[in-house]
Amino acid sequence: QVQLVESGGGLVQAGGSLRLSCAVSGIIFSINAMGWYRQAPGKQRELVAAITSGGSTDYSDSVKGRFTIARDNAKNTVYLQMNSLKPEDTAVYYCKVQGGRSWGQGTQVTVSS
């Protein structure tokens, strides 16, 4: 049974940075693609960044150039480095095994203007 534990969220001013972490267990992490999603109040959950098992990355247009997804297979952890944060980045952020069904509890990111 896959478990995902997100951490690293918080309150930051616009223009600031945060690094999110997601510790994954219950799967062979290294062979799975991973994604970071977010859900703002009143909005649908959306994919913001993804990384394949080989390390290829993809980003939504809204975060491209500001966010970086990375993985450490030795630590079974996926990261999301978020720079130049904007108030519209405020959301609960979740990681997920791409193609899987389980979600973690998420981590709240709040960006003040």
Name the descriptors:
mainly beta; 113 residues; six-stranded mixed beta sheet; 10 strands
Give an account of the 3D structure:
With 113 residues, the chain is mainly β. It has strands at residues 3-7, 10-13, 18-25, 34-39, 46-51, 57-59, 67-72, 77-82, 91-97, 107-112. Strand 7 and strand 8 (77-82) form a beta hairpin. The protein is globular and about 40 Å long. The relative contact order is 0.34.
SSE layout and pairing:
Layout: E1 3-7, E2 10-13, E3 18-25, E4 34-39, E5 46-51, E6 57-59, E7 67-72, E8 77-82, E9 91-97, E10 107-112
Parallel strand pairs: 2-10
Antiparallel strand pairs: 1-3, 3-8, 4-5, 4-9, 5-6, 7-8, 9-10
Summarize the structure in short:
It contains no helices and ten strands. The protein has strands at residues 3-7, 10-13, 18-25, 34-39, 46-51, 57-59, 67-72, 77-82, 91-97, 107-112.
Q: Approximately how much helix is present in the residues?
A: under 10%
Low-pLDDT residue intervals, each spanning 5 or more residues: none
Q: Given the helix and strand composition, which structural class is it?
A: mainly beta
Give the strand tally.
10
Q: How would a crystallographer describe the biggest sheet? A: 6 strands, mixed
Task: Give the overall average pLDDT.
Answer: 97
The main sheet orders its strands as 2-10-9-4-5-6
| N-to-C CA distance | 40 Å
Rg over alpha carbons: 13 Å
Number of helices: 0
Shape: globular
Our estimate of the beta-strand percent is over 45%
H/E series: EEEEEEEEEE
